[in-house]
Structures
1.
Amino acid sequence: MSPVTHFLASWMLANTAPLERRERAIVALSGLAPDIDGLGLAVDLATRGTAWETNWWGEYHHTLGHNLLFALVAGTIALAFARSHRLKSFALAVTAVHLHLLCDVGGGRGPEGYQWPIPYLWPFAAHPQWVWSGQWALDAWPNLLITGICILVTLRLAWSRGFSPVELVCLRWDRKVVETLRQRFPGRADP
């Protein structure tokens, strides 16, 4: 799935518990973090056609960050950086990584038809691998629908709770987003 969809789904997950801004950020970023193993694509593109050509994308994407060990590392980082809701942050960060993995199993097939398996116990064991024969392509309608739903739910949460994912970048911008939503869709927001 798209990194945007992973981020929004994880931010929505972070809103299932009464977390502070910092903790919501940790959980949301934990759900996005598994795709850090996709940064090898930049190296592959930079080295394409050279004597140092690499295949880091093919070798490491859906491996380094897509496993149980990475989920536990993300949870441990959340535990270390959370302030008041440390155990909830740990649990939600681990859950956010697993949500990412499940979304990729469902909708992560590449344009060439390759189904990215998830080596769940890597680096300790190559198997079992999570894979689903019904996996749809990245640009298939289910992914677009899920992204659309995530956007709508995120906007609804921002309207009702008074903060949006923009809070992770700038509180002033976040207030403007919420204010605009509330002016456009007047009603009674949650306290």
Note: The chain has a mean pLDDT of 92.
2.
Amino acid sequence: MSAQQIMDTTEFKRCREFHGHVCPGLSMGFKAAGAALERLKANRSEDEEIVAIVENNSCYADAVQVLTGCTFGKGNFIYEDHGKMALTLLSRKTGQGVRVALRPGAFAPDEEHLALLRKVMSGNADEDETERFHAVHLKRSCDLLDMSDDDLFVVNEVKMELPDKARIEPSEPCAKCGEPTMRTRLEDKDGMKLCRACVEYP
């Protein structure tokens, strides 16, 4: 499918609505999640059937959440701060896993795009520069969507231990601030059970 055809799909529209706009990061996350699901032969996770591990906290991650159904709330969306455009998807059903990472040199930075981005983000772009930025930003997003998965990503099968499923634990009041806190997150300090916030910031 062409970039426009992809952007017209229900799946991409849901990603755009969740994230708020179309951008290269969203496009790359969309492509990575689609490639991982296809390679894993998995459907969108309704509960905790699959686990997603993302290695950056950029726009990319929003598309992964929407497309895979893995979320922080369900406990099957994990963020590891490696600063990489990479996604690992694991199936609880089969025990199989796949890691999709941006291929070196596959999507080189565009100097005009970066310069305009810096100006817009700093609030120093004039009307013409802002308009040009949006045009280049959209083109870069479409360029990504037009690329084949093979040209864009390195895909490898992985074997790793699956994280525990999300647990629901009763809450108890922190002995200092009094706020209800998951029992397993309370820490003993000076004979009191304290929440981590009170331990870290006494």
Note: The mean pLDDT is 92.
3.
Amino acid sequence: MNARLTAGVALGYPVAVIAGSFLDVPQLPLAWLALIALVVAWPALPMIGRVAMALALGALVVLLGTEPAGKGLIYAIPVLIQGALAWLFARSLRPGKTPLITQYALALGATDSQEVRRYTQRLTVAWALLCGGLALLSAVLAIAVSTTTWALFANGINYLFLAALFVLEYPLRRWFLRDEPRAGLLPYLTALARADHRRILRQ
């Protein structure tokens, strides 16, 4: 199974969480998690392994669907995702490291200037703070509000915050870094999608 299918299934998970909350079907997000795991592992497994894994995951969904452990797992995932993103950005801000956004900017052809490095360092800080704040807020809401309210925020609104920062930052960058090449948003997104993410994230 290709990367596009895996990404498509993964992107459907927040929808499954929100739908499961509104429909009062706690097994739905667990079943979607099981589907993600199966899609990821599918190419590496023989046929008997695929069948065994599907049966095992199905049994786990049935067992955990109405148990506190299953609910806790669903609550934990947004916190873990946002926390992991915050960690990725924050770790690149340590002394001797190149900020993550700086690495991406240079990989995409930005000028290695003091202005670019200063701007991208501050942007890396902003991303780290936003992701860390969303992780903390998701954890607090899991305790303080209803499941439906939490599901809407932790699996919907928080991603809108991330999208808003990504989209609004682009014109700000053009304002603060006026001397940098301007290829347009669509070419920028294409170049970003084609970047060597594994190499950058390993640094």
Note: The chain has ten helices and no strands.
